Amino acid sequence: MNTDVAAPRRNAPLETAYRIRVLRRLAAVLLVAAAALAAGCASVTRQSSPEAAAAANALLERQILLTVRQPDSAAAGLTGAPGSRYLKRRYGPTPEVERVLARLAREHGVERVDGWPIAALSIYCEVLEVPADAAVDDVIAALAADPRVDLVQRMNVFETEATGYGDPYVDLQAAALDMEIEQAHRVATGRGVLVAVVDSAVDKSHPDLRGRVRIERDLVAGHPFDRAEVHGTAVAGIIASAVNRLGIVGVAPDAGIAALRACWALGKDSVAAKCSTFSIARALQTALDVGADVVNLSLTGPADPLLERMLDEVIARGVIVIAAVPAGAQNGRAFPASHPRVIAAQAATAAVDDLPFRLGAPAVEILTTTPDASYAFLSGNSLAAAHAAGAVALLLEQEPSVDVERAHALLASTSLRTPEKTSINVCRALEALRGEPFCGPRDGDERLAFDKRLAF
């Protein structure tokens, strides 16, 4: 395992028991996947079987999240003997919180699985498992009525928003041409901007991503990986692939990537990945800890109270968050794009007018990076979010004070609009920010005068 990957230290007996449970469950998932392969359900494709997806969901359906108040100052500086729960600073609960959690688990008949302090909210978050003979909603209701509990909710599951394509005749330069990326790079390349990619594992050894991944963390418990994963690598490639004459060029090729693994692929070479409330919350806290300027969330799921609070805090601290709009009519699964101050990105194939910060961006048959020095054509709103995140990184390099409202206004007001699509144009957005023309004429545009009304 790469030494840059940080994970919390746990009490040794608890860790052993937890690993046994995880291995048993993982074995069940693998058996399901193996059966699907034997039956011919999994061909050479980048999609996961329905059986594997159902098995992954089953791992989380009986888990709940509970938080209790824990001021950050109280948790800092905990120490202890090797193997103790308090061995590593800021990773464990205070002794008082530990006692509260133990009593809550005992009194309500639930099992403690994992935990993590969320300093941004001054809380400690614990994952609990409800036994098979108890109703999850009844347990949640009982815990919600307990005065020691700050928040309790189901462990929600989030999904990435990309699918695979294999058409070798796609115009490889379509997205770059639409966004005028080459012209934009004359004035900005994302230098000095850190983008947190909250996703599955990124292949930092990919030729186009070498040196771009500045920080790497694995924040997923129970879903180990021994190789990079497709979705996170694809998203990172769109944002920050280097200018090196080896493959593709990212929207912000000099931006740094904080690869925060909060999602796990549903199978080898699968684009599809799942994430949980707990792993995403840990990733958002980590994004704050490492000083990210932009957070990319190419995932969708149900409304989530804990993550709503986390996003409020992240955005309040000046971080710009971009999220993927769910594809099609996915009732009840529009979060986090539905958050009122998150930039919501979707494919540039329709009007973009029903969310306050919605943008259209390239998302159909996009060539991007995949593990093992490979490339693939992918489609989905995950890729729209990645393009928008790269565009925001360029704006931030030019003017670090740009906030979410201004970033959206710049990108929305300069978007290419036709009857068929609305798509961001990062070069025109940079023109508006700088107050001077440099992109060159569009088709039918003499560019005899620069419209100063676009200058913000």
Write the layout of secondary structure elements.
Layout: H1 12-38, H2 50-58, E1 63-69, H3 72-75, H4 95-108, E2 111-118, E3 123-129, H5 136-144, E4 151-154, E5 157-160, E6 163-165, H6 174-179, H7 181-184, E7 194-199, E8 213-218, H8 230-240, E9 256-261, E10 263-265, E11 273-276, H9 277-289, E12 294-297, E13 299-300, H10 305-316, E14 320-324, E15 343-347, E16 358-361, E17 366-370, E18 374-379, H11 381-398, H12 404-413, E19 416-417, E20 422-423, H13 426-434
Parallel strand pairs: 7-9, 7-12, 8-9, 12-14, 14-15, 15-16
Antiparallel strand pairs: 1-3, 1-4, 2-3, 5-11, 5-13, 6-18, 10-11, 17-18, 19-20
Helix pairs in contact: 1-2, 8-11, 9-10, 11-13, 12-13
Q: Please tell me how large the radius of gyration is.
A: 22 Å
Q: What is the arithmetic mean of pLDDT?
A: 81
**How many structural domains can be distinguished in the coordinates?**
2
- Looking at the overall shape, the CATH architecture of the largest domain is 3-Layer(aba) Sandwich
Number of strands: 20
Summarize the biggest pleated sheet.
7 strands, parallel
Strand content: 15-25%
Helix coverage percent of residues?
25-40%
Shape: elongated
CATH class of the largest domain: Alpha Beta
**CATH topology tier name of the largest domain:** Rossmann fold
User: Can you tell me the residue ranges where pLDDT is under 50 for at least 5 consecutive residues?
Assistant: 1-48, 75-90, 165-171, 446-456
How many individual helices?
13
